[in-house]
Amino acid sequence: MRIRTLLQLGLMLLSFTVQAETDVAGSRDPQQLPRFPLSWIASYSEHKIPEYELATGPMRKIEEVTAPEQSKGVKGDLTRITYRVPSTHTPEQVFNYYLGLLKSLQADVLFQCSSRQCGSSSQWANNYFDVAELYGLDRTQFFLSAIAGNLKLALYTVQRGNRRVYVHIDLIQPLQQSAETLAVDLRQQGFSWLSEPDTIEPLFEYMTHNPTQKVLVGSYSKSGELEELLQQSTERAELFTKLLIDAGIDAERIETVGVGPAMPLERDSSSGLWVQLR
Fold first, then answer.
1. pLDDT averaged over the chain?
2. pLDDT score of 2 more than 60
3. How many C-beta neighbours within 10 Å does residue 77 have?
């Protein structure tokens, strides 16, 4: 009888543990970053944002405003994931786990810090991530920002005063371009970066709806010898233009240019395409 009672108690405890470690509804892991073992998703949200300030410096109070000392503005779809980690693990262990994953992805770490070098945990939790559970002990915190391919991210891990350990990830993925988003860029700034070279639909749709508008399609390449880069970028712009013409856009409405490495604007990728109004 005693053994049966102990078994029932064990099953009840196991059921409670499984229930406590269940991910919130509708959440999922990012494909590129599998979760820290035995952790579970405590909060999850997705947002379309006009711009995200990716922190590349610690929290500092400047002219009565507390914010990252340096940041990089990026556009995209923001996914926010907060994981609870079993308290048998430390924030440093969690941080090193994700740092190893990012290295395997050949990510470029823009900034990282630990302990009080990062600034106030309260400010990271409440002002930057807007997740109250991340308010922990300053000496236990770790932060990094990184770029992995077309994915940008901010990662923060900390231990609270109640010994609970959390890791939070902000993932910013490029907005899927459409005729509407392209039109907004062209109206606001006169140019827009284009997605993959074989994806002409947004620009084709835009030019179809604006039948008198002329454009310039440009391309750049940054890695290699100058003459080779000029040729590569020119060929890439001409190939994209040919796809538009083959789809029915009048060739007289499109000019092309290849600028090689001569890019006045900062870009993370080694090559790319843009369109601007003429």
1. 87
2. no
3. 15
Residue 7 to residues 11, 15, 32: CA-CA distances in angstroms? Answer: 6, 12, 40
Inter-axis angle of helices 201-209 and 179-189, nearest 10: 70
Please give the structure tokens belonging to residue 104.
Answer: 């395997």
Phi-psi region of 119 (alpha: psi -120 to 50; beta: other; left: phi over 0): left
Q: For residues 201 and 180, is the Cβ–Cβ distance under 8 A?
A: no
Contacts of 115 (CB under 8 A, 6+ apart): 138, 139, 140, 141
- We find that the CATH architecture of domain 179-277 is 2-Layer Sandwich (3.30)
Q: What percent of the chain has pLDDT over 70?
A: 89
Extents of the domains making up the chain: 21-173, 179-277
